[in-house]
Amino acid sequence: MGSSGADKTTLMDVLAQRKPKGTMTGEVLVNGYPLDYPIGRVSGYVEQVDIHVSKTTVREAIEFSARLRLPEETSDKEREDQMENTNDILELREIQNELVGIPEGATGLSSEQRKRLTIAVELVARPSILFLDEPTSGLESRAPLKMAKVLRRVSDTGVAVLCTIHQPSKEVFSFFDSVLLLQSGGRVAYFGDLGEEGSQTITYFEKNGGDPMNPKLNPADYMLHQIGTATTERGGQKDGHEIWLLSPENKELMGSLEHTKCDKPAIVPDKAPTSSSTILPQETFEFSSLRTSSGSAL
């Protein structure tokens, strides 16, 4: 999470190996293991723009993805079961025979339904990791809250859910477990568990010279304000990224990453997984670390 220009999408694209151009340094780990196979084999990516064939039904869109992306040895029954399970998780069963239509069209799916279909197209391939670029943006009324509940259900199935998000409501924010706060230029201002109603992150800012939290405020708005106006205890301006680098929380995180890091690759390249059932041990799903030249970790 961060303000516009914080390079949230750029970071996620790098982690998802979707940035073929440019200079990238550092290392990406999954469960402490270095990657030596394309992460796309075990992950899904939900872009901000929902692109579907307008004349297909919801079911046809999901089946098309399942036939192309599930392992070749998948039986018809297994594929059908996976499609039905995906329909249930994304609550698409009641509209599975409706045409997708065009965005903002007189007929077809609403923007919120289209987003759920986009997620379903990725989820039916049984990814272990699901990336989403601002899944609540552009949704109206209570749709962002419904989307947050959907993502929570996906996470509860054992899929690691990582998404960028911009100024979520208090209700939406409550469904997330941890947060990475980025300042302009992609610099880390905080990473860690949120705690109940963001209490753990709020405590971090308050003890580092931040403003006291007003209980009436949205925790997400409070955090975005703090990383934009970081101060020291003496009241002078100090960069939030610098505060993070010197914090005990960052040192503890770095130590944890070193402790979980393994030298051997996660999976032999020519035996990369084709379903979430064959990927990494689930008991320690410490998703990733990205080291920068300044020593910060994501």
Provide a descriptive summary of the structure in words.
With 298 residues, this protein is an alpha/beta fold. The protein is built from ten helices and seven strands. The strands form three sheets. Strands 3-4-5 form a three-stranded parallel sheet, sandwiched between helices. A hairpin with a 2-residue loop joins strand 1 (29-30) and strand 2 (33-34). Helix 2 packs parallel to helix 4 (111-123) and helix 4 (111-123) runs parallel beside helix 5 (143-156). The longest helix is centred in the first third of the chain and has 14 residues, at 76-89. It starts with 7 loop residues before the first helix and ends in a 38-residue tail after the last helix. Residues 268-298 have low confidence and may be disordered.
Topology:
Layout: H1 8-15, E1 29-30, E2 33-34, E3 43-46, H2 58-69, H3 76-89, H4 111-123, E4 129-133, H5 143-156, E5 160-164, H6 170-173, E6 178-182, E7 188-193, H7 199-207, H8 219-228, H9 240-246, H10 248-260
Parallel strand pairs: 3-4, 4-5
Antiparallel strand pairs: 1-2, 6-7
Helix pairs in contact: 2-3, 2-4, 4-5, 7-8
